[in-house]
Every structure is written in structure tokens, then in C-alpha cells.
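Quality-control log, excerpt.
Job 1 of 2 completed; input and output follow.
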Amino acid sequence: MATPAVRMFRRLEGLFCVYKPSGVHWKLVRDSIETNLLKVLNATPSQPLPQEVRFLAQPSTETEAPKGLTLSATSVPVLSKHPLVSGPEFQNIQVGVGHRLDAFSSGVLVLGVGNGNKTLNDLYRTRVTRDYTLEGEFGTATDDFTHTGGVVERSTYEHITQDKLERVLAMLEGANQKALLMYSNVDMRSQEAYEMAVQGLLGPEGKSAPILTGLRCIHFQPPNFILEVQCLNETQKYLRKVVHEIGLELRSTAVCKGIRRTRDGLFTLQDALTRHHWTAADITQAIRQYHSSKKHRKHSLSWDNLNYILLSTDSALIQSS
């Protein structure tokens, strides 16, 4: 029969997401959550100790004549099962981390508990896209593409307009769209490509270079600007390099001041638990919400991939005409 702690742990198994603040390593986030869960699991009321029958010597009185040792069957608790002897019921639990964020990035970080780790691996074998907001600043280039790195160049930026920036973004998005289609190894004018797009399966086969599936400017006030990015197989270092290359394309320089992940697959900022909610109760509720939302989204279409099919088909028709 399962103990109360085991029953609670089974309710915790699954996927959820938290908000990782900037300046905190993802390992510290994972360890904090694991520690919180262990404390709650081991604080649950334990079951009564099992009993065993032992034959114990009966105390003899002075009035009784010595007739040898008298034994009687007695039920006593099994002290080897006591928590003070055996230790806590849960010594450790496996908390897995999905697509990681480096220490200087913030946003949605997906984690799995127990058998949720297998689901986590299955999730990232699919073509999961992620959304980011990138804060950039024109006029400076550094050795690590961040605003805190060593400055290697300064340049003017007064000639940059929002129209020029958006043209560069459109060029980058088009180049990455071609890369996505190339890595997919599917004829974009075929029925197979359309069916894969409907099912959300259109994307690179296996490992590929980072691909930007969407790129737009949501704020422009020189020298500062903010980009919204959708991507596959990216790293935060790659995204900082993208900001740097955008500056070069505009005959200037640029550094990345901040990276925030706003979506990772099905998980969004609205689903992310802040630090004060990294408790067993909130995590259990978040896992339940994930399972319910997964059922509702199971048959949803991948509109991004459909757009790629339509754009690619239009391009193909234009080239053939």
C-alpha cells in the first residue's frame, strides 16, 4: 500500500514551468525546487509502524517458585522502519530541465518531475519553437555581444530608421525560411508537406543549425530597440550574435542588453511560476493545468508552418511564371 508521501509524489509527476530571473543559474532554480519538494514530501504524516510478534520473557515474582523461563507472545513495533532509523522516505527526486537558459537570460524554464522527465525528452524530440524578446542598443560592439562585455568598437546610429531595421529583419527571416525548408527535406509543393504543416511536423530533421522562424521589431527608440523572435534549436549566445549582425547590416554596431523567453512550446509566461510559488501545491496545480491544456491543443493546427507552406508555394509559382 502506497504511503501518503508516495501518493503526493505521484500527483507531482509531470511537466510545469517556472520564471527564471536574470542573474540566477538554472541549476540553482532546479535545486531550489527539488529542495522544496523534498521538504514537503518528507513532512507528510507517516503511516503507523508495522507490528511484529516477538516472544518476550515474562517477569517472575518473588512468590513464584523458579520453574524456568516463561515466554509470552507480544506484538511490538518494527523499529527498523522508524524514520529516525531508516531516514527520510525520499532522499532525492529527479527534477529534469528542458531547454536551458544561461545565467544572464530570464523567462520560461520548463521542468519535469518523476516520469515527467520522459515526457520532457519526448517533447524536445519534436520540433518545438520558442519565443524571445531581445533588447538591443545601437552604437557599441563588444567581445561577447552583451552590453557588459569589453567594448571593441563604437559607431554612429543616427542614420538608422525603423524602416531600414524592418527591411533587414525581413531579409534575415527570408534567409532562415529557406534554411528551414532546406533542412526539412520535403518538397514544399507536395501534399506531404501540406499534411506535415497541418500536423505541426514541418521542420528540420534531427539536429540542425539555429533557425529563426519569425522576427519583428516591437519597439524602436534609437539607440534602443526590442525584437520579438520565434526560433528553433537556438542558444542565447546565438541570439546575441543575431543582434550584433543586425547592427552590422545597418552599417553600425549593436549589443544585446537582455534576453527573455516568453514561450517554450505550449508553456507561456502566464503559465510560469514565480519564485514565491515554487511550492508542491502550486506545482501540482500547474501540472494539472498543463495536462488539461494539452488535451485542448492536441488537434490544433500549426499556423506558422502553414504560413511557410503558403509563402513557399507562392514563391514557387512566381519563379515558374
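Job 2 of 2 completed; input and output follow.
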Amino acid sequence: MERVDETATAPAPAGKLQEEVGKVMEEARELQESGSSLLWKISNEEQSLRQKAVSLESSIRRVRSLISSAVSQKLLDRNQVIKFEEELHRASCIITDGDAAAFLPAKSQGRFLRKFLGPINVRASRKEVQLKVKEEYNSYRDRTALLFLLFPLVLLTLRSWIWDGCLPAFPVQLYQAWLLFLYTGLAMRENILRANGSDIRPWWIHHHYCAMVMALISITWEIEGQPNCAQKQKGVELFLQWAMMQGVVMLLQNRYQRQRLYTRIALGKANRMDVVWGETSGVDGQLWVLCPVLFLMQGFEAYVGLLLLKTAFVGVVPKWQVICCGILLVVMAAGNFINTIQSLMTKSRFKAKMKKSKTKQELD
């Protein structure tokens, strides 16, 4: 039999072990001291960069104020003003869209995030992490847009083919629970995006708050059956039809407007953390498709809200849930319409400014 080397398996002397343990402890202390020293240096450098970033933002605001003062005194012509504003905008984009954005003061996260997540900082310090948050938001919109279209379509189809024109309560309440999950997820993601520098308009987040409340209320809404099922469920049917239209609009926005946003980012006219707004317009060719659909959807949303209020007040479905949902639908429709008009006006002013700038360059 082969002999085993006893010296290889014999335990080391106590003195040798003590030396090894001491060596490990010394290396651990050195690593701790080196790490502390490095973190102290990084903290000092980071504080210095934060001060420079704040100072530069203040300088941009000061220069813009000087430009406004010069314009009021008629010391600058319009072309010079446009040129200066474009350069300042690009300088601002460099700060907010580059790695220096991590050193800018963090935006307030708002009560919504604090209620759900507590007092934690959701602002990412690295730009690639911020962009991943944005891409996850876009992916979430893509997934939910298709479900937004298919879910009510399936319910209405089954209502006609299987349920004899009368929707059962459970599938509708399941759909409302999914809407509550959807709008809560959108609101949380959009609040996080705003904290990381996105330009989402506050109304679209507030719109999702209203939709969350409506979904929560509608879950408690008792769905009436026979007799007169068709009359009692008319509001539910119209709401499902509106939801299908909303799904179509979301698909159009996700398909066409995002490409436009990528183009604007490449041209330096938008921040990489910007996203497609809830009801914004696309490029010129898309206006003829999106705008009529948007206004039709908003009008139909207001019509459904008014119909729900009518059914409650005339005694067809006299429930407080119907009244609340009707009011919320009307409020959301009005807010969407106003913000769509504001978006179109902003786009129109921007196009006019770019056209004048282009004409000036051609003349030069």
C-alpha cells in the first residue's frame, strides 16, 4: 500500500498559526485604513464637484436673466437671443444629461414615494443605472399597452358570446384590480424618473393618481345583473370600450413617438432621461393620426363620465361609486385635453423658433 505523507497532514504548531492569524489581521486593518482614506478623498472631491455643479446652474440662470434684461432694453436682436438660448440649453443638457448630473441637488421624491418606500434615496448616482430605469419604464408601458387593449376586448367578446350580454362581477373586478396595479406601477416609476431628472409633466402623474382612486373605488362597485342587465351595465360597457381606445393610443405612442424622442435626444434637444409624455404629439405625419384619436378618446372619456353621473342621478344605478367614477372620468378627460393643447402649443412654438433659426442660417 502507498504510504501517506504524515508531514503534509500534520497540524501546524501553535506558534505558526498565531503568526498566520496575526498576518491576516494586519492585512484586514491595512485594507480598512486604505478604504477609509479613499472614501474620505472621494467624499471631499464629490463635495467640491457638487459645489461646482450648483455654481454652474446658478451661472446659467444668471446669464438667462441677463439675456432677458438685454431683450427688454432692446440691446439684442431676436436671432442673437435664439442663438444664446440654444447654447445655454445645450450647456444645461450637458450638465443634466451627463455624468455631472449625479452631483446636482436631488429633486424632491414626493409624498407618494415616501408613503410606499419610506425615506430612501431613489436617485441613481450613475447615468447607466438611470437609463436602465427609463428603459424598464418603457418596457412596462409596452407590456401593459397590449394588455390594456386585450383585457377589455376579451371581456366584451365573452359578454356577447358566452355570458348572454351580461357581465359577471368577478371578471370586471379582476380587471379593475389589474388597473389598480397598472396605475400604481406607472405612478411609482414616473416619480422615480422625475427624481432622476426626467421631464414628465406633473399632470400625467396626477392623472394616474386619479386613475388609481377610480380603480380602487370601482372594485367595490357591485355589478348589477338581470333584470335589465344591458341598461344597468351600459356604463361598464362604455368604459371597457374607452379602455380599448386607450390601449390603441398607447400602442401608437409607444411605436411612433419614442423614435421621435430618440431623434431629439441625438440632436441634443432632449434629455436622455426624458420620456414620451402621456398625450404628446408626434412628428408632423403622426399628427393626423394621433391628434384625432386623442381628442376622440378624451371626448369619449368625458361622455362615459357624464353617462355614469346620469345613471346615478336618474336612479338607474344610484350608488356612490358610480358618482365618484363619473366625476373622476370627467376631471381626467378635462385635464388630458388641456395638457394635450399645451403640448401642441409648445411644439408649435418650438417649430416656429427652429424655422426662424434655419432661415437665418441660410441667409448667412
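Post-run check on job 2. Residues 277-285 have pLDDT under 50 and may be disordered.
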